[in-house]
Design brief:
Length: about 525
């Protein structure tokens, strides 16, 4: 799995055997420089992908984007009939936000392998992955990528944070060093964020997003994730098709890649239908709620543990990127994960903790960006490959105003799990009534269950959609009042005060109220 800088000279050398009429290419050093493979775009654009140029000189290749060719039959890929799966009942169109599963002989081969020859190990990976499932799907859905991509680390690493390959790929998403750094991960002798399940998933989402924008097909994007985008582009040009399965039949992709995509689809299908295949996942806690606290370098996790009262092993477990269980002395600032209840204690006591081991440091916090003259939100979001909605959410920005010198968070600094058996991520064009109807719940119940004062939703928002919950809890947000909460749950102020042992109507952000 790698990202290779695509330069003129490299493309000409690699592609000369496949086509002789490619027009000169503009130099491009990053995946995001490539336009989406949409042939409605003006061919005179200054930056063109290698495939766009090749298609221009080879009109015999079908030019419609794959996601527009799939119409009535959700399993039809360029006319090849495959069976749609039971869990996909209403989807008729494939796009960036959906991954429709289907079966063919390649997928069935790997389903048989996982369920017969390798069932024990597959079960173990599914069980291990259940701990990270909600976390990974939360990050995927916040950037509007298919939640089904959660099964990719199962194929890559078996959800092992310490996985290490012969190609020196590390972590659950198996990033090599160059790709990881390009997508914002810190790697040095003491820190390796490829092992961090939150930050590595953020980087994987950015990379997968770029690959989809290049190939306009999840099959091709996943193939490129495995063998590199140059290899896939070269196969497309030699085979004169953008149908992944035709490239497989023609054996134009490496054997590992030809197996990689059907492996993923097979794993996803089985994972979504565990009972049907006589597989069970034991109940276990999901990944815990965590918050990042900016700390200076030169302090060990043992020292922090003693001062704030959080167990050392818990600190180690949620900070797997710290290889020596210590923040390097040269690191000027670093975002350390802690449980939310220890956040304020660490903030208040950190100066005393750091005083004994403070050293001169030079590396800045990789999770912060200082606004420069001429910057604006869209430009910063594009630079760091995050959605503008997430950038606003990370920094509590309502509009678009920012100022020079302002420090912006450019990656997640907290993770919150849903307290319920079932959750749903808000999609584009969703509204509260639509979500309630989807799960056969009332709007009033859904609001109470999720503590929603208003009916405003945002894309990627995680909602608890569990049924028959009778004892509600409400987490106080900034700007809340006891009166507002009483109105939401149709309770009196006196009832709420008595239920929560409150002497008056004063409440504070983060307080958990029993309803």
């Amino acid at each position: 799995m790698s990202v290779i800088n695509i330069k003129i000279s490299i493309l000409i050398i690699l592609l000369s055997s496949s086509c002789s009429n490619i027009s000169p290419l503009n130099s491009s050093s990053h995946l995001s420089d490539y336009p989406i493979l949409d042939n409605k775009k003006n061919v005179n654009q200054p930056v063109k992908s290698a495939e766009t140029l090749y298609l221009k000189d080879n009109p015999a290749i079908e030019k419609k984007p794959l996601n527009k060719e799939i119409k009535k039959d959700i399993g039809a890929i360029k006319g090849k009939s495959v069976r749609p799966l039971a869990i996909e009942k209403s989807q008729t169109v494939l796009d960036k936000h959906e991954f429709t599963l289907y079966k063919n002989k390649h997928v069935e081969k790997w389903m048989n392998y996982f369920l017969k020859k390798d069932k024990a190990r597959f079960s173990r990976y599914i069980q291990r992955g259940s701990y990270y499932k909600e976390l990974i799907q939360t990050v995927l859905e916040e950037e509007e990528l298919p939640a089904m991509l959660y099964y990719l680390p199962l194929i890559e690493s078996g959800f092992n944070l310490n996985a290490y390959s012969r190609a020196s790929a590390v972590g659950p998403w198996q990033f090599i060093k160059g790709t990881a750094k390009r997508y914002g991960l810190t790697i040095n002798s003491l820190i390796d964020e490829r092992r961090d399940p939150i930050h590595s998933t953020e980087a994987a989402v950015k990379y997968l997003n770029d690959l989809y924008n290049v190939f306009n097909s999840w099959e091709l994007a996943l193939a490129a994730y495995n063998c590199g985008e140059i290899r896939v582009l070269r196969a497309i040009m030699k085979g004169k098709t953008r149908d992944f399965w035709q490239l497989v039949e023609k054996k134009l992709l490496p054997r590992e890649t030809r197996n990689y995509v059907p492996k993923f689809i097979a794993a996803a299908y089985i994972g979504e239908n565990l009972e049907k295949h006589d597989l069970k996942v034991k109940d276990r806690e999901n990944y815990p709620n965590v918050e990042a606290v900016e700390v200076s370098g030169g302090v060990s996790l043992k020292t922090i543990s003693k001062h704030i009262g959080m167990s050392y092993q818990s600190l180690v477990n949620i900070n797997p990127a710290l290889k020596m269980r210590k923040i390097p002395g040269w690191q000027k600032k670093y975002d350390l994960w802690v449980y939310p209840q220890f956040k304020n204690k660490l903030i208040n006591s950190y100066e005393k903790i750091a005083r004994s081991s403070q050293k001169e440091s030079s590396h800045s916090n990789p999770g912060l960006y200082t606004v420069k003259k001429g910057d604006f939100l869209i430009k910063i979001a594009k630079k760091f490959k995050i959605s503008i909605n997430n950038l606003r959410r990370y920094n509590n920005i309502k509009g678009n105003k920012i100022y020079t010198g302002q420090k912006l968070k450019i990656r997640k600094t907290r993770y919150r799990k849903v307290n319920g058996d079932k959750f749903y991520f808000v999609k584009r064009n969703d509204y509260l009534g639509k979500v309630a109807n989807k799960f056969k719940l009332s709007v009033s119940y859904l609001k109470k269950l999720n503590g929603l004062i208003s009916e405003t939703l945002y894309v990627g928002q995680k909602l608890n959609v569990s049924r028959d919950v009778k004892n509600f809890k409400y987490k106080v947000k900034k700007g809340d009042s006891l009166l507002k909460i009483a109105k939401l749950y149709k309770k009196s102020l006196k009832y709420l005060r008595n239920k929560n042992s409150l002497r008056n109507n004063k409440i504070y952000a983060g307080q958990l109220l029993n309803i």
